[in-house]
Amino acid sequence: MSDVALITGATRGIGREIAFTLGRNGYEVVINYRSENQDLEDTIELFKKEGIKFYTVKGDVSSFEESERFVKEAIEKAGKIDVLVNNAGITKDTLIARMKKEDFESVIDVNLVGTFNVTKNVISHMIKNRKGRIINISSVVGVSGNAGQTNYSASKAGIIGFTKSLAKEVGSRNILVNAVAPGFIETNMTDVLKDNIKEEIEKAIPLKRMGTPKDVANVVKFLASEDASYITGQVINIDGGMVM
């Protein structure tokens, strides 16, 4: 029986690529999404075209009750969850002097509290099965910080602390918990940047280019595999050497 991977925020960008890569490598994939839109339709069409076995579950990760419901639905549909990828995230960037309280709270609620909500509702299932992989999507700004992103950086730094603590709690149950920390990745978020800003960013990266969602997905695939069976509590930067 194939392993089952639940990926939150899986209808665009890095989340979709992670789901697609795992699906292409034999996993059954559970796609979590927050709302019906063109991204969801495009994702479903792509997965059908590629012959990937998948399920969809709707729910907002920032709500504990919704997370509880869609995790239960995922287990009912797929039979189990072997791999959880906490990918769902948002940004609301601005300097703290201009940042509204709700802009700070909403980023924390989706990125950090959302990671807790989904993990909390998956972990008892994994403990019962004495098997699991949890891979949290952090960011290099959670390590280095970044001006204009106090909310986002705090949420991603929190995910790193969460990852390391959980890894110590559940390691004896054969559950591995790791994080990946992408740098600048070519997604809808970076597409809106002006060319001169992109050039400055690339100058600061030793590899002189932005990464791709595939670069992130390949590391997630490795961490989900048996090849990573002795790795837990780690944070892997996927940033072209930007933060060392």
Give your account of this protein's structure.
- Helices cover 49% and strands 15% of the residues.
- The protein is built from 9 helices and 7 strands, in the order βαβαβαβαβααβαααβ.
- The chain has helices at residues 13-24, 38-50, 64-78, 101-129, 141-144, 150-170, 188-191, 195-203, 213-224, and strands at 4-7, 28-33, 54-58, 83-86, 132-137, 175-182, 235-238.
- The protein has a 7-stranded parallel sheet, sandwiched between helices.
- Helix 1 crosses helix 9.
- The longest helix has 29 residues, at 101-129.
- It is globular and about 50 Å long.
Question: Can you give me a brief rundown of this structure?
Answer:
This protein has 244 residues and is of the alpha/beta class. Helix content is 49%, strand content 15%.
Helix content: 40-55%
Question: What is the number of strand segments?
Answer: 7
Q: What global shape is seen?
A: globular
Low-confidence stretches: none
Order of helices and strands: EHEHEHEHEHHEHHHE
Largest sheet: 7 strands, parallel
